[in-house]
Amino acid sequence: MGRTPGRPRAFDRDEALEKALVEFWRHGYETTSVAGLTAAMGIRPPSLYAAFGDKRKLFGEAVAHYQATHGAFTTRALAEEPTGRQAIERVLREAAVNYSDPAHPPGCLIITAGANHSPEAAEVEEELRGYRVAAKQAFADRIAEDADAGRIPADSDVEGLATFYAATVQGMSRQSQDGATREELERVADLAMKAWPL
């Protein structure tokens, strides 16, 4: 006899994942409890474990979901703009809009969700660090293209510029959490682009 199929889940998995993402975004990984997650997701703990595994696995999936949705503006800007300068400027300007959007928690999940972790959550911070390092390398790659094409001096400090703009994005995230408005963050973007080599 064939195995009796299980009952279908009584919730929308994608919708529940988005709600979990917002909880992690608002509170960070470590201070987000399973009870808080299930309350936000509108499910019971057994459903969370059946659908997503444990809290750690749910977080990993939430981060991937963030990268594909709320955080995708960075990847799109770096891929779509014709020059490194235009790509970096677009990242900064879209960060100003995204990080201050009242429709979701302020700032960037990748920048903030692993802060102030205990040793037990060190692998979470390492995972998030990997995303940040990759983003900085993507900045460097686009800046290097401008140097190679003669759009900026060939001896420009590509790594230094990439670190500077990554630090600017991270600072904009923190400032938005402290209440900075879109207009204030856009001024940060204006000033940061004045550091671009001519």
Description:
The chain is mainly α. 67% of the residues lie in helices and 0% in strands. α6 packs parallel to α9 and α9 packs antiparallel against α10. It is elongated and about 60 Å long. The termini are far apart. 32% of the residues are buried.
Keywords:
TetR/AcrR family transcriptional regulator, mainly alpha, DNA-binding, transcription regulation, 198 residues, Tet_transcr_reg_TetR-rel_C_sf, TetR_C, 10 helices
Please write out the topology.
Layout lengths: L12 H15 L6 H8 L3 H8 L2 H14 L3 H9 L3 H16 L9 H4 L9 H27 L9 H20 L4 H12 L5
Helix content: 55-70%
Shape: elongated
Low-pLDDT parts are none
Helix and strand succession?
Answer: HHHHHHHHHH
Give the structural class. mainly alpha
Total number of strands = 0
Q: Largest sheet at a glance?
A: none
Total DSSP helices? 10
Residues in β-strands, percent: under 5%
N-end to C-end Cα span: 74 Å
The averaged pLDDT comes out at 92
| Rg, nearest Å | 20 Å
